[in-house]
Amino acid sequence: MNSLTRKSKVKKVLLGIIAFVVLAVVVLQFTTQPLTNPPVTGTIEAPKEVMAILQRSCFNCHSNETKLAWFDKIAPLSWRVKADVEHARQIMNFSEWDKLGAGDRVGAFWGITNMVKFDRMPLKGYRLLHPDAKLSPAEVEIIRKYTESITHNDRSDSTIVHDAQEAFAAWRKQTDTLKVFPKSPNGVVYTDEFKKWKVISMSTLFENSMRVIYGNDIAVKAVENEQFHPWPDGAVVVKAVWEQAPNEYGEVRPGKFINAQFLVKDGKQYTETEGWGFAKFSGNNLTPYGHTANFATTQCISCHRQLAEETGYLFSVPLKVNPKQ
């Protein structure tokens, strides 16, 4: 067989492969179930500058008003697009805003604020094909200010307590008198024991809160040994959140109690949320957050995966704890 004949056969094989691939792609376009837009049940209402950002950068995934580019509709890429959009809608859907209570809406915007602040949303892969979706620093600030404004509005029935130490003592006394502690829908039970635990870190967010983070003995030992990958089962971390209340001397102390956020490490029970059981208990009555057991699967862990994987899914690396304290 001469070289000319060999090249001819190779060419025919390559053309056959190309024809097969083209045919397969064409067939896929007709057999793939397209992404659909369900009805809009409750549209979010926000200032026009906020809506402009959301519609440009968020609505294509987090709403029932998705507008796909032509290349998003081509299989097999369309399979990934469809899966990503359906997952995004489960986490947060601006077209079903009526399903969220006032507190949940504020919480959703704090999640948005943190995700855009740390450049985790929109996803980098999405921005490669949709570069106009990226937020500018000025737009991040617009989202931050709006989030802060609705946070204060949501607490319009509360006033900052100026005698911060008295407020802190009053909250502790209130929770000390509870006979039966509440349970989160996913099984995490509130415990007052964290008041006796060591402080392992502190943090703040844009809404001028004061956040003190406690750890049980297992968590403290993990901090001392930097065992974050993964955290050991049995570790419990509690973030107690208060409003900041400056006194007459300008010192900032804990004011009105907001909530206590629990993270309980149990790799067997909480397999869908990286081994962490999430819970939040709000107000002096310690009202549990969430209506169903899967609230952490669709809400909490999505942010923790994006922002805190390097710290074992906690938002900040805890400070070293002095074992002699």
Structural description of this entry:
- With 325 residues, this protein is of the alpha+beta class.
- The protein has two domains: 48-150, no CATH class; 158-311, Chalcone isomerase (3-Layer(bba) Sandwich), CATH 3.50.70.20.
- Helices cover 40% and strands 14% of the residues.
- The chain contains nine helices and six strands, in the order H-H-H-H-H-H-H-E-E-H-E-E-E-E-H.
- Strands 1-2-3-4-5-6 form a six-stranded antiparallel sheet, with helices on both faces.
- Helix 4 runs antiparallel to helix 6 (137-154).
- It is globular and about 90 Å long.
- 29% of the residues are buried.
- Mean pLDDT is 79; it is low at 154-165.
- This is Cytochrome P460.
- Pfam families: Cytochrome_P460 (PF16694), Haem_bd (PF14376).
- Residues 22-151 form the Haem-binding domain.
Write the element-wise H/E pattern from the N-terminal end onward: HHHHHHHEEHEEEEH
Helix content: 40-55%
- The radius of gyration over CA amounts to 25 Å
Gap from first CA to last CA: 86 Å
How many strand elements?
A: 6
Shape: globular
CATH topology of the largest domain: Chalcone isomerase
What does the average pLDDT come to?
79
CATH class categorisation of the largest domain: Alpha Beta
Number of helices: 9
Number of domains: 2
Largest sheet strand order: 1-2-3-4-5-6
Alpha-beta classification: alpha+beta
Low-confidence stretches: 154-165
CATH architectural category of the largest domain: 3-Layer(bba) Sandwich
**Could you name the CATH homologous superfamily of the largest domain?**
Cytochrome P460
What is the percentage of strand-forming residues? 5-15%
